[in-house]
Amino acid sequence: KAGVTQTPRYLIKTRGQQVTLSCSPISGHRSVSWYQQTPGQGLQFLFEYFSETQRNKGNFPGRFSGRQFSNSRSEMNVSTLELGDSALYLCASSTSSGGVAGELFFGEGSRLTVL
Amino acid sequence: AQSVTQLGSHVSVSEGALVLLRCNYSSSVPPYLFWYVQYPNQGLQLLLKYTSAATLVKGINGFEAEFKKSETSFHLTKPSAHMSDAAEYFCAVNTNAGKSTFGDGTTLTVKP
Fold first, then answer.
1. pLDDT (tens digit, 9 = 90+) per residue, B41-93?
2. Is 70 exceeded by the pLDDT of residue B33?
3. pLDDT (tens digit per residue) in A19-49
4. N or C: which end of chain A has fewer CB within 10 A?
5. A94 contacts on B by Cβ (under 8 Å)
6. Are the beta carbons of B99 and A56 separated by less than 8 Å?
7. Of A69, A61, A75, nearest to A8 (Cα)?
8. Buried (b) or exposed (e) across B34-48, using 16+ Cβ within 10 A?
9. Alpha-carbon gap, residue A32 to B108, rounded angstroms
């Protein structure tokens, strides 16, 4: 069974640009969540999608957005990039549904550098 | 609200020594608790999870953790450290299916 796939793995952008990151979950997983990982802030929850609907959202500005497609693949977008957006963005898929907490299966991440 | 505190951002042990990584949680409802490991330039991988069954949970690579409700703790242990255990370890709590809250992580160094 293929794992969680994130693309691109590395990217460099300049301030003010926008970026789109992609995540393909494990087959059969309907929940996809996104996390931002930085040395200073650790792992911060961005949002979670389940069956194409945003089910949970973290405390990030509106520049951070996401969506999920009917095949459960997900994208996140960051507009008007700032230096502080430089981070490893991790996608995780899960079988969790309703109130049942499932384990998270993580991709290897997309490392974004903003210059 | 839920939160996780990992005591000690860096832990160093000798190869063959006991590994103890501490995690305390705060949750208003019975939590699900997880330990994940992250190797350099990789995503996180599940070590073990507690989901209200047995309080002593065994995971991969010889790790185990004990859920202690009275102490709100879920410490991770391994009897004998191996060089390959050097990594960053994260404790996480989940009371809402779609959102996990992670601790700040503990970097484990294993000395030969």
1. 889 999 999 987 788 999 999 999 999 989 999 999 999 999 999 999 999 99
2. yes
3. 999 999 999 888 999 999 998 889 999 999 9
4. N
5. 97-98
6. yes
7. A75
8. bbbbbeeeebbbbbb
9. 29
Query: In b/e form, how buried is each residue of A31-65, taking b as 16+ CB within 10 angstroms?
Result: bbbbbbbeeeebbbbbbbbbeeeebbebebeeebb
**How far, in Å, CA of B51 to CA of B35, rounded?**
12
- Give B58→chain A minimum CA distance, Å: 15
For B41, nearest residue in chain A (alpha carbons): A108
CB pair distance less than 8 Å for A101 and B105: no
Which two tokens mark B102? 């992670």
Bridge partners, residue A54, by sequence: A49
- For chain A, list the strands marked E by DSSP: 5-7, 10-13, 19-24, 31-38, 42-50, 53-57, 64-68, 74-78, 87-94, 105-106, 110-114
Over the stretch A76-90, which tens digit does the pLDDT of each residue have?
999 999 999 999 999
DSSP state of B95: E
How many A-B residue pairs are in contact by the CB < 8 A criterion?
67
What distance in Å separates the CA atoms of residue A30 and residue A94, rounded to the nearest whole number? 7
Question: CA–CA separation, B42 vs B47, rounded Å?
Answer: 15
Give chain B positions within 8 Å (CB) of A2: none
